Amino acid sequence: MRQDSAWRRGWTGPGDPGEEGTAAAMTDFEQVDYFSDPATLLDPYPYWDFARGHGPVWREPHHGVAMVTGYDEAIAIYHDHPVWSACNSVSGWRFPVPLAGDDVSDLIEAHRDELLFAGELPTMDPPQHTAHRGLLLRLITPKRLKENEEFMWRWADVQLDEILGAGRCEFVVDFARPFTAVIIAELLGVPEEDRPYFRDQMVGKKQESYATVGGVDALVGDPFAWMHDAFAEYVEDRRRNPRDDVLTALATATFPDGTLPDVHEVVMIAANLFGAGQETTVHLLSASLRRLGEDPDVQRSLREDHSLIPNYIEEVLRFDSPLKGPFRLARVPTTVGEVDLPAGTTAKVFVGAANRDPRKFECPNEFRMDRPDARHHLAFGHGIHTCVGAPLARSEARIALERLLDRTSDIRISEAHHGPPEARRYDYRPTELIRGMLSLHLEYVSVEPGGPSA
User: Fold this and answer.
1) Residue 435 in contact with residue 411, Cβ under 8 Å?
2) pTM to 2 decimals?
3) What is the pLDDT of residues 392-440, one digit of tens each?
4) Residues whose CB falls within 8 Å of the CB of residue 352, separated by 6 or more in sequence, listed in order
5) Which of 109, 173, 432, 453 to pair with 83, CA 20 to 30 A apart?
6) Total domains, the chain
7) What CATH number does residue 64 fall under?
């Protein structure tokens, strides 16, 4: 197991992990290939500090990828979609053919379908992205989110009923995964009798989803293929036999121009929302509970005043973002952060690094639950690719924390599994795209009759 050194330094030190010294960082990381080094995949923060030392945009020597650690530079790339294609958002710098010339737009379109996650929202560019995102926004309306939130309160208690009596749990599998899986299933209108199947599938996917080990070659290309048949059946049935339900709305929703998407397109939209939204929210929940267990003062403050929880969640998102960051591909020559980049350049937008840019956030390596600009983080992306499910994730985290705090009097990290406070050990998933713990063992005191007394 590997201790998360960046978190510990940010937790106990005077505020800046970089104080250990630029020279040491240069010695440690000059030869490291970020995209294949197992230690860096598990704990990227030291490398991000090293990359930031070269400037907010720096072309690393192994693959020529432009490493973007600056907040303003990340925003610029996110918003400049005429220049920066999202086609390689998941696949990275590898492209099926050489990218030669001063405009590689035609090459991108000719080979787009050969890239990982082709045809899914995160890899689409306008105008296709505009149409598909518009369809999704027609499905996730404020009214539907409000109805789903009412379900969340009930479902949080159902999940807590299953685990509180034991006085301990492995939070990721015992609560976070089933909690988020069933909530998204309900949002999408999955029939109640089928929800246990979706819950069991998501709980069992704890190490597969979007996983990379040793670089993108090992990426699981379609970790949610198991749900495609189910949603295809739902869509086809509701188109034949429409009802007054959410699945019918999903099946009959049209693009903004009035055309009806084919079944595959609807299935991919549903699967992407289900998978990507569930994945990042699980890691947001586990990061939030880890900090509660590590810091009694923070836990006490949130117990006494639940109105602090929303900003606490924003600071968790800023400080330990579930998304490490997407790739982008330059169609034409461009300049970002005073660095000239030729057409065909792959950029890696490090969301977690941008969220600790000292030019944007004061003392960025300190966790401040009352930070006034915490919500300015990039954990949900920015621009046209901002996560559609961000309001859902925020509601899930807020409701889960409120119910956990209401129904316990103390939450602690299990020393038997993670070690004592001065030497914590956490296993993080070896992924390129996502940052999240494989497990989080908690101990707690239930305030309800029949709960443990210590």
Assistant:
1) no
2) 0.88
3) 999 999 999 999 999 999 999 999 999 999 999 999 988 888 899 999 9
4) 44, 45, 48, 320, 321, 323, 324, 325, 435
5) 432
6) 1
7) 1.10.630.10
